[in-house]
Amino acid sequence: MRPVMIVSGRHPFEVTLLLAAIVCGAGLLLADARPRSVTVAMPTAVQATWEVGLIIAGVAGLVGITWRGQLSTGLGVELGAIVLFGTFSAMYSLAVLAITGLTGLTAGTFVGAVAVASYWRCYQIVRDLRQLAGVGTTCTVVEVPLLIKEDSS
Amino acid sequence: MITAAEPPSAGPPWIQILLSVVGLLGGTGGVTAIATVALQRRKFRADAAEVLTDTALTLVDPLKTRVGELEAEIQRARRQAAVASREIRELRDAVQELTALIRRWQRAIFAADATIERLREYILASESGGPGSRIP
C-alpha cells in the first residue's frame, strides 16, 4: 500500500496564464480589437467563440484549482478548463504561424508551448483522477490524513 | 502573396477549416471532461483534505525520519531482549544443576550408613566435578 499523491494546479505558471487568458479575452471583447492573424485565419463565429472561450477557460481553471469541496470535482473543472485553454492557445498559435509565417515564429512558438504545457497538465490530471478512482482505504498517521492505495503487485 | 503588413480580409480556407475543427474538438473535449467527472463523482471518494498534494509532502518527511528512528530503536530493543533471554536460560540451567546437587547431598546425609567421614569424601568428590564447590 502507498499514499496517493496529487499534483496541485496551484503553480505560478498555471495561475498566471489562466489570469492572462481572462485579461486577454475580456480586453479583446471590450476593445473589439482582434489580432489580424485571428481575423484572417478564423471564421467570424469561431473568433467570437475564441474570445469568450478564453474568459471561460480562465475563470473555470481558477475555480477548479481553488475548489474547496470534493477534490475530483475541482480536478474535473480544471481539466475541462485546461483542455479549452490548450485548444484556444493552439488555435492562436496555428493562426499566427499560418498567416505570418516566419515573422510570427517567436509568438507562435511561445503560444504553442503554452498549448503543449496545457495538454501535459491534462495528462497529469487524468492520471490523478485515475488514482483517486482506485483509492481503497483512508488512514490517519500522526494528524496527517493519508489515502492509501492497494498495491497491485 | 500573404504578408504580415497587409493580410487579406480572409485567409486560406484550409486554415479556417482547420481552426474551426480544432476549436470544435477542443471545446467538445473540455465540456465532455467536466461533464464526465461531474457525472462520476461517486466513483471518487476523496475530499481535498484527505489527499496529499505535492506541497503537503513536506509534512511527510519528518514522519519518515521518525519512522527510521523508531525502526533503529526496535532493532536495539530486539538485541537487548535476545541477550536477556540467553542470560535467563543460563541461570535456569545453573539453578537446576544446584537443586540436583542439594538433593544428592540430602540423600547422602539421610542415608542409613552415613558417617562424617563418608560425607566428607562424597562432598570432596562432588567439588572436583561440579558446581557443588560453590556451596559452603
Essential attributes:
heterodimer; A: 153 residues; mainly alpha; 3-stranded antiparallel β-sheet; 4 strands; 70% helix; 11% strand; B: 136 residues; 3 helices; disordered N terminus; disordered C terminus
Task: Please give a structural write-up.
The complex is a heterodimer of chains A (153) and B (136). Chain A has helices at residues 12-31, 36-41, 44-65, 71-100, 105-133, and strands spanning 2-3, 5-6, 135-141, 144-149. Helix content of chain A is 70%, strand content 11%. In chain A, a hairpin with a 2-residue loop joins β3 and β4 (144-149). A three-stranded antiparallel sheet of chain A has the order 1-4-3. The model of chain A has no long low-confidence stretch (mean pLDDT 86). In chain A, α3 runs antiparallel to α4. By secondary structure, chain B is mostly helical. Chain B is rod-shaped and about 135 Å long. In chain B, 9% of the residues are buried. β2 of chain A pairs parallel with β1 of chain B.
* Gap from first CA to last CA of chain B: 123 Å
Number of strands of chain B: 1
Task: Enumerate the spans of chain B where pLDDT stays under 50 for 5 or more consecutive residues.
Answer: 1-5, 131-136
Q: What structural class do the secondary elements of chain A suggest? A: mainly alpha
For the largest beta-sheet of chain A, the strand count, sense and barrel status come to: 3 strands, antiparallel
Question: Residue share in helices of chain B?
Answer: 55-70%
Task: Please give the order of strands in the largest beta sheet of chain A.
Answer: 1-4-3
Residue windows where pLDDT falls under 50 for at least 5 positions of chain A? none
Q: In terms of structural class, how would the helical and strand content of chain B be classed?
A: mainly alpha
Give the N-to-C terminal Cα separation of chain A: 10 Å
What does the overall shape of chain B look like?
A: rod-shaped
Total DSSP helices of chain A: 5
Number of discrete helical segments of chain B: 3
Assembly level: heterodimer
Order of helices and strands of chain B: HEHH
The radius of gyration over CA of chain A amounts to: 19 Å
**Helicity level of chain A, as a percent range?**
55-70%
> How many β-strands of chain A, per DSSP?
4
- Give average pLDDT of chain B, whole number: 80
Major sheet attributes of chain B: none
Average of pLDDT of chain A: 86
